[in-house]
Amino acid sequence: MPQIPEEIIQQAIIWRREIHAHPEIGLQEFHTSAKISSLLREYDLEVHTGIAGTGVIGVLRNGEGPAIALRADIDALPIQENNVVAWYSASPGTMHACGHDGHTAILLGAARYLSQTRAFNGTVYFIFQPAEENAGGGRLMVEEGIFTRFPVSAVYALHNWPGLPVGEVAVSAGPMMASQDNFFITLTGVGCHAAMPEKGADPVLAGAHLITALQTITTRRLSPLDSAVISVTQLQAGEAINVVPQTMLLSGTLRCLSQAARARCQTLMAEYVEQLTGPFGVSGSIRWEYGYPVTVNHEQQAKILADAAHHVPGITQVHTQLSPSMAAEDFAYFLEACPGAYLWLGADGPTPGPALHNPYYDFNDQLIAPGIGLWVSLVESSLSPVSVISED
What we know:
metal ion binding, Alpha-Beta Plaits, 2 domains, Bact_exopeptidase_dim_dom, Hippurate hydrolase, hydrolase
């Protein structure tokens, strides 16, 4: 494939840093959306705004071929930035700690290049999705019918990936990211004086046993071939040091790599909460806050994306068998509604940088060029121009 012009790469780096300096929380990305819309119109793309609130879709048509979609997430996180850089967040308590600024700049750079070269036959939809972090902007877009309004044969996304070196990418068929559900457990006992525990029913003791028991679900009640994580992360109980409290609250997260494991864990956790607390004279209930499904790459699209990556300058290795992550990603909703694939773009330099969601994290601008190149390679290979065969 042709080399991406240096001028486009440098401009994309400028956009990335401008977006980083003006981060916005999910469904509040008004400045970011306006910037994206303005640039897409500048490239003569058809622009649709107000999708899932602050989402933007740019449309680039060139011929009567098929259509594919490329997605970037645009929201930031409620984290106070600790970096000392010229593009430091101007919004206290908000920062691009996951690299969505870089994903957005990469997709903008690809839109600019493809609008100039048009070496493809078909339609490309550039999806700039709001609220990937917890608010489920992907689900909102799907519920609003983007794949009915903008029908495509496939949809693709990438995410920068600390832990994988620059120049390497990973895209596997099957699960790439886990499902994510939050649970809230209430244990109700009988409060009493801490010196006379026999007069009451201690929910703290019941909770301690329950926390230990929940960990046995993944090690003894699931197949070793299934992957799941149950993490209790918050505890609330008691107001006075000499009182056995009436209630205890436990909350945490469940992550799984299959819908079957997800359903099985939820059933077993409900049984444990109800049955293990009884011998302590305590009653238990569990409430679920259902989150993102498993991000599952479709086999054909994963291969198409991997093949496209092989032709990109700067990408030296394409992994197709890396283990999935137990983190979650709302691109999963897109992949439930449409064939597609999700790729990790290696982000580590010679010295690995901070992890995602860290206050010292900053997107590695070395990824801009291979990121743009990846989208260009994918579009040009998926939407190949129709060859004209002359006849004698």
